[in-house]
Amino acid sequence: VIMQVPFLDLKAQYRTIKDAVDCAVLRILDQSNFILGQEVPEFEQAFAKFLDAKFSVGVASGLDALRLALEACGIGQGDEVIIPANTFIATALAVSSVGAKPVLVDIDPVSYNIDPALIAAAITPRTRAIIPVHLYGQPCEIEAICQLAAQHQLTVIEDACQAHGATYNGRAVGTWGVMGCFSFYPGKNLGAYGDAGAVTTNDPQLAGKLSRLRNYGQEKKYFHQEKGLNTRLDTIQAAVLQVKLPHLASWNAQRAAHAAQYTALLKDIPEVSTPVVLPHRSHVFHLYVVRVPQREALQTFLASQGISTIIHYPIPIHQQQAYRDLDYRWGAFPHTEQAAGEILSLPMYSELQSAQIEYVVSKISEFYTQQRKD
Ligand SMILES: Cc1ncc(COP(=O)(O)O)c(C=O)c1O
């Protein structure tokens, strides 16, 4: 019999918090304080406290969080910003959107995160910042990267959009760099019910600047200190996030337990390489990414068995049409390119059931058993 295993099931989570969310959303409708209502600063403070950061500034998306962070340090035309070659396109788009140039660096093929040993060679006199990404929910080598950045007087802006609550040496990602950027896109570990994001920082000046930049450059209405944008965190989204934040630690723990179950069961299938959690850090498993041969055939077979999988990401940034102007050639980032051809993200969300994980693994096993016979 076919069991349906969606890649992600937002409704399953909603059912567990429906009363509290409905009540919070209806309260906003009733108050009609849609723009920068009190739920926005309340959530900002709660999120900062959760991470042990001094400030968090709510914005409209993860992309805008990155963009405002770059703008807040005055990065723009003529500047270069180092980013990993393997990341979601938004990391690069943020750099381009302020007029700066993204400079890509290959990954460590074990963690899929930026390889710190390759960063120094990418630094030029124009380099202003590094945006390390904690991809799939696993912290990158953030301590070493912050040290290297300090030696070269570069700003570190963390892209923690996939790693809410992950820690390196016990300290939350998003609090290592000068600023940390988060997305609350619905599918994230902490997801809103629409687009939303935040920037965290310990610097009061930067916090002030970020909260002006997201709101037309004004602190006081109609007094504009900077050329800002309109990219505020919506009050309804802040209210939803307020309800969800207290659950984040247990949802992350459930994800980690699902990952452990997948890894234990998949070890009997030699074709499948499971994720490796490197020392000194906690992985919050936004995604559970394996490496497999015959990926497309496996994905098609799994789909026929009711199992949805996704590739994060099938085309690296330097091979995207949008970034032809960067002029990188095929082979420029071999580990990123190889990973792009082999990685597959299996269903992962807090409410995933143990029996569903067993079913997914049994179907992967069935596929490779058949392949070995053919
Ligand atoms: C690594 C990374 N950076 C940036 C973003 C952008 O976030 P958003 O979709 O909220 O703009 C995302 C998520 O979409 C992401 O995964």
Q: What topology does this entry show?
A:
Elements: H1 10-31, H2 39-51, E1 55-59, H3 62-72, E2 80-84, H4 89-97, E3 101-105, E4 127-130, H5 142-151, E5 155-159, E6 167-168, E7 171-172, E8 179-183, E9 197-201, H6 204-213, E10 218-220, E11 223-224, H7 235-244, H8 248-266, E12 288-291, H9 295-304, H10 334-342, E13 343-346, H11 354-373
Parallel strand pairs: 2-3, 2-4, 4-5, 5-8
Antiparallel strand pairs: 1-9, 6-7, 8-9, 10-11, 12-13
Helix pairs in contact: 1-7, 2-7, 3-4, 3-6, 8-11
Q: Characteristics of this structure?
A:
two-stranded antiparallel sheet; alpha/beta; about 375 residues; 11 helices; binds pyridoxal-5'-phosphate; seven-stranded mixed sheet
Give your account of this protein's structure.
With 374 residues, the chain is an alpha/beta fold. It starts with 9 loop residues before the first helix and ends with a helix. It has helices at residues 10-31, 39-51, 62-72, 89-97, 142-151, 204-213, 235-244, 248-266, 295-304, 334-342, 354-373; strands at 55-59, 80-84, 101-105, 127-130, 155-159, 167-168, 171-172, 179-183, 197-201, 218-220, 223-224, 288-291, 343-346. It is globular and about 70 Å long. Helix content is 38%, strand content 14%. The chain binds pyridoxal-5'-phosphate.
What is the number of beta strands? 13
Query: Helical segment tally?
Result: 11
Instruction: Give the strand line-up of the largest sheet.
Output: 1-9-8-5-4-2-3
Structural class by SSE content: alpha/beta
Could you state the order of secondary-structure elements as H and E? Answer: HHEHEHEEHEEEEEHEEHHEHHEH
- Uncertain segments are none
If you average the pLDDT, what whole number results? 98
> What small ligands are held by the chains?
pyridoxal-5'-phosphate
- Share in helix: 25-40%
Task: Choose one word for the global shape.
Answer: globular
Beta-strand percentage?
Answer: 5-15%
Radius of gyration, taken over Cα atoms and rounded to an integer in Å: 21 Å
